[in-house]
Amino acid sequence: MATNDQPVVIVGAGLAGLVAAYELSNRNIRSIIVDQESEANLGGQAFWSLGGIFCVNSSNQRRLGIRDSRELAMEDWFSSAAFDRETDHWPRKWAEAFVNFATDHMESYLGALGVRFVSVGWAERGSGQAGGHGNSVPRFHLTWGTGPAIVEAFAGPVKEAAKKGLVEFRFRHQVDEIIVDGETGAAVGVRGQVLEPTDVERGVASSRKSVGYFELRGAAVLVASGGIGGNLDLVKKYWPVDRLGPKVPQSFVLGVPAHVDGRMIDISRKAGASVVNSDRMWHYTEGLTNWNPIWPKHGIRVIPGPSSLWLDATGKRLPPFLYPGCDTLATLRHICSTGYDYTWFVLNKSIIAREFALSGSEQNPDITGKSILLLLQRIFGSNGTGPVQVFMKKWRRFHRGDVPE
User: Fold this and answer.
1) How far apart are CA 343 and CA 323, in angstroms?
2) Following DSSP, what letter does each residue of 336-352 receive, concatenated?
3) Which residue blocks in 255-364 are alpha helix, DSSP H?
4) Closest CA to 383 of 360, 341, 353, 338
5) Which of 275, 341, 397, 405 has a CA 20 to 30 Å removed from the CA of 312?
6) Rg from Cα positions in the chain
7) In total, how many domains does the chain have?
8) Is residue 247 included in any domain, yes or no?
9) What is the pTM (predicted TM-score) of this model?
10) Exposed, middle or buried: residue 153 (CB in 10 Å: 0-12, 13-18, 19+)?
């Protein structure tokens, strides 16, 4: 077990790494956080998120009359995950533990850190059948302050722990190898390259020029480095043909920065880690190319509401229950089967003003900035949010026209 003299080496300074360091510091256990990016990217991809939190039977749900339960959430999760492999033992155990935590502790745990929710939405409703997969009730708790507020809830205490000597940051340290003890088989450290300093802003792709090497030892190694969303080569390599069909889209937009590259997956595998379900991936189908990109192929997800007419590339309406926010993977499978990589939303200005929204912290300055004035303008305004209006003007694939009377 780690002690003050034997730190835990955490690979990744994203939200998972911060939560791990926070929990360890609360137990008076030292940790060293290693990340290939600069301090500007502390919190990782969570910073760019809308800050949705999965809670079950929360006070917010009960206040809104939403009837939820541990049993219903567990049934929904297992139906959606479709655990059907021998390697699904630990994923199943993780799912059970997470749903239990989301039911018993999530709301109070985050509340103690100052996190508040502004609404409860209904993300991924599923197939529309009573016994089908998806969320049977709204569980998407939108954080007041979006992703940055979630990041700061943990970054603040971790920085305070660093002042006490319980946490050490090693930015611009890129791990190439996990050191394994030859006798015990335990992971006892990492080694890799020190990357040159950079002053690029958060999310911008940074240099990979090496200026030295490093090695760190500890009592254990915790890999919290994120997935493959910024690495299209790995996405295509592990494309789930059995679930999404053989047609791999040729064009993608990316909702995460380039540093979400999945490097640590193979590095962990080489060190003896059990890597399972590499083909179980998630892709949103309502993506737009950002007119003002921060990272390569920067995409923004549309949250269009129910009134838009959704057509495939040939002009045919998508079949039920393939509506925005309902059954993402089934929608993706259908779109791929058409032979095209795109679809159309047909809507008018009234629908845009009342229903259209863009996902991500930077696209929602009212909620991210905790501005009640801007939030009221969103609710009662007649033109849509500021970012939506800008997209309408500057995005080259927004086509306008008059409807014949």
Assistant:
1) 12
2) HHTT-S-EEEE--HHHH
3) 263-270, 328-337, 349-355
4) 353
5) 405
6) 22
7) 1
8) no
9) 0.94
10) buried
State how far the Cα of 201 lies from the Cα of 39, in Å rounded to an integer.
Answer: 10
Q: What CATH number is attached to the domain comprising 118?
A: 3.50.50.60
Residue 100: per-residue pLDDT:
98
* Residue 306: per-residue pLDDT: 79
Q: Which domain holds residue 211?
A: 8-223
Q: Which of 31, 3, 37 is nearest to 17 (CA)?
A: 31
Angle between helices 70-81 and 89-104 (to 10 degrees): 150
CA separation for the pair 84, 82 (Å, rounded): 6
The predicted structure's pLDDT at residue 397: 76
Q: In this structure, what are the phi and psi dihedrals at residue 194, rounded to the nearest 5 degrees?
A: -90, 125
Scored b (16 or more CB within 10 A) or e, 204-213 reads bebeeeeeee
Instruction: Report the alpha-carbon angle 152-155-160, nearest 5.
Output: 125
In a domain, 319, yes or no: no
Q: For residue 262, which amino acid is it?
A: G
Distance, in Å, from the CA atom of 80 to the CA atom of 75, rounded to the nearest integer, reads 9
What is the tens place of the pLDDT at every residue in 163-174? 999 999 999 999
The residue with tokens 């002009």 is 315
Contacts of 84 (CB under 8 A, 6+ apart): none
Regions of the chain short of the pLDDT cut 50: 1, 405
* Residue 289, domain member (yes or no): no
